[in-house]
Amino acid sequence: METKTNKLHRFALNTCPKKFDNSGCLYTADRTLYSSAHAVVLHHRDVCTTKRQLPKTPRPSNQRWIWFSREYPSYSPNLSFMNNLINLTMSYRVDSDIFAPYGWIENHNGAINFTIPRKTKLAAWAISNWNPNETFREVDIYGRQRQKLQRDKQTEIFSAYKFYFAFENSIHVDYITEKFWYNAISLGCVPVVMGPPRENYERFIPRDAFIHRFIPRDAFIHVDDFSSPQELASYLQSLDKDEEKYKQYFNWRSQYYVPPQDNPWTVSYCRVCKALKDAPPYRTIASIEKWFK
């Protein structure tokens, strides 16, 4: 099996977690093995500039091409390049052939005793495209033109906040990124989310015996539940003064936890082997663009 990955996201091949059955599969970046590969993973951002970036060697009969993207549609140019080429999809979309979310929670069966990190600050927000004409009271903003975020101290910095503004760059079905999963949930903050509707966050979707996407209602705060930013701000301030009510947003942790992800790319690729074993009859997708958008 051949994988094409961005140089910034290299990972050790054939080292999948035990819960993934990868018996009988070989992951390789050796392109000389292309003609014998059962599947080729095409990471969209690496092959979307020109069709010349796609494999040039004649495609073996019944070799499956897997389209992989972690980006939202408007940040995925030239989707038409994939017309009538792709056999399986892999993305954050639940209706992908291979579901590869940014994060998930699992049932820990009482094995984990979660303690809320010590809170000394109210709210944080990390953003790259910040409008200096906007004003935010009591919210510490990290990113360009604002406070510098030291990556090696990100856990220490964000875990001290009661709330984290997990605002997505674009609103699309199932597009819930590391802003929610890592910056907020994993670091022990209550996420204030803006993205797909609340119902999308609350979905409980068992993908297999190990992976679940279940976000309890009391695990986050959705901006759509408020009529104005002022009403949202007032609610956050009320939670800041009511310790018991604030702690209710962590009740779900008595049953669930977010598995650590040293490299989420590894987990995404590790799902390919099982997907190939369970793959539907060979078929080609006429338009990735029509499906994805």
TrEMBL record:
GO terms for cellular component: Golgi cisterna membrane. GO terms for molecular function: 3-galactosyl-N-acetylglucosaminide 4-alpha-L-fucosyltransferase activity; 4-galactosyl-N-acetylglucosaminide 3-alpha-L-fucosyltransferase activity. Keywords: Glycoprotein, Glycosyltransferase, Golgi apparatus, Lipid metabolism, Membrane, Signal-anchor, Transferase, Transmembrane, Transmembrane helix. The keyword Nucleotide-binding does not apply. Gene3D superfamilies: Glycosyl transferase family 10, C-terminal domain. The keyword Transcription regulation does not apply. It is a single-pass type II membrane protein. Coiled coil: none annotated. GO terms for biological process: lipid metabolic process. InterPro entries: Glyco_tran_10_C, Glyco_tran_10_N, Glyco_trans_10, GT10-like_C_sf. Residues 117-212, 213-291 form the Fucosyltransferase C-terminal domain. Its main location: Golgi. Pathway: Protein modification; protein glycosylation. Residues 9-103 form the Fucosyltransferase N-terminal domain. SUPFAM superfamilies: UDP-Glycosyltransferase/glycogen phosphorylase. Pfam families: Glyco_tran_10_N, Glyco_transf_10. Its EC number is 2.4.1.-. It comes from the Eukaryota. It catalyses: an N-acetyl-alpha-neuraminyl-(2->3)-beta-D-galactosyl-(1->4)-N-acetyl-beta-D-glucosaminyl derivative + GDP-beta-L-fucose = an alpha-Neu5Ac-(2->3)-beta-D-Gal-(1->4)-[alpha-L-Fuc-(1->3)]-beta-D-GlcNAc derivative + GDP + H(+); an alpha-Neu5Ac-(2->3)-beta-D-Gal-(1->3)-D-GlcNAc derivative + GDP-beta-L-fucose = an alpha-Neu5Ac-(2->3)-beta-D-Gal-(1->3)-[alpha-L-Fuc-(1->4)]-beta-D-GlcNAc derivative + GDP + H(+); an alpha-Neu5Ac-(2->3)-beta-D-Gal-(1->4)-beta-D-GlcNAc-(1->3)-beta-D-Gal-(1->4)-[alpha-L-Fuc-(1->3)]-beta-D-GlcNAc derivative + GDP-beta-L-fucose = an alpha-Neu5Ac-(2->3)-beta-D-Gal-(1->4)-[alpha-L-Fuc-(1->3)]-beta-D-GlcNAc-(1->3)-beta-D-Gal-(1->4)-[alpha-L-Fuc-(1->3)]-beta-D-GlcNAc derivative + GDP + H(+); beta-D-galactosyl-(1->4)-N-acetyl-D-glucosamine + GDP-beta-L-fucose = beta-D-galactosyl-(1->4)-[alpha-L-fucosyl-(1->3)]-N-acetyl-D-glucosamine + GDP + H(+). It is found in: Golgi apparatus, Golgi stack membrane. Belongs to the glycosyltransferase 10 family. This is Fucosyltransferase. It comes from Engystomops pustulosus. The lineage of its organism: Eukaryota, Metazoa, Chordata, Craniata, Vertebrata.
